[in-house]
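Board notes (copied after class):
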Amino acid sequence: MSTRKTNATVAKQRTVQRRIDAKKSSHKKSDEAVQAGARRQPENPLPKQHQQKPGIEAKLKPRPQYRAPGYRGSGKLEDKVAIITGGDSGIGRAVAVLFAREGADVAIVYLDVEQVDAEETKRVIESDEGRRCLLIPGDVRDANFCHEAVQRTVDAFGSLDILVNNAAFQEHADTIEDITEDHLDLTFRTNIYGYFFMTQAALPHLGEGSAILNTGSETGIFGNAALLDYSSTKGAIHAFTKSLATNLAPRGIRVNAVAPGPVWTPLNPADKPGLKVKDFGHGTSMKRPAQPEEIAPAYVFLAAPVCSSYVTGIVLPVMGGVIGATSA
């Protein structure tokens, strides 16, 4: 290439550089939360607060948004029956309400200390959505209980079409040395054993057109330095989802997962010190945590055959951006 052409190329590069440098100086990145939904959602800073585990939604400030008033049901799950673990609060509650709005009867599984939250969920499903709701307190770490929960659901509603594995345990730890064997066992038995046990219990009642939905996490994709055990279980859930989808495809049962980013639920103030709660979710592109009602429609999409009959084995990220791992 001639010296003249080289000089011309360099001149063009520097012209572009000067123009972009000038733009950079006049445009500052906004640190404000992004509002892109049907109604305005709470923003940071969130109030300082801390709860004993497992956390009670009725005590959370501000209360998580789960009613999704702008969502209109259209019978996508008409007369289906769903069982949702961790369905008393958080993402599980929001999913239960939208499933009911789409025509499903819902059984929710929860720890008995969460009775207040469970009763509110039941009240909303029955009074506002006009569907039946069965409350089943118990621990998904117990395989016998999982079989009992499924049988109670079938006895009450006559069938089972959808399983949502959502119950979870999470506790931040600064180093791997801080995670005891009991801590590790509690996380794995809740987050992955419970998924296995519930699936094994539900399968005899599921058939062609049924769906299994698992709650994964952005931490299962990107990892998280302070959630070594939790992130490991969420990665396992993603692999479980893909493997089970392939295993059950010949039976016409679809298996998918949703991988949320930070979501404002009782899990958070029951996991973090109060001072850290105020900035929860600010590291996302949205500069705020999601509300449960912003996550729940993804579950409707994956549960409804009319929406996703050709979708199985996916992990659907709903993370408020693509940065990941910085916000949990």
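Comment from the instructor: The longest strand covers residues 254-260. Residues 69-318 form a domain with the Rossmann fold fold (CATH 3.40.50.720).
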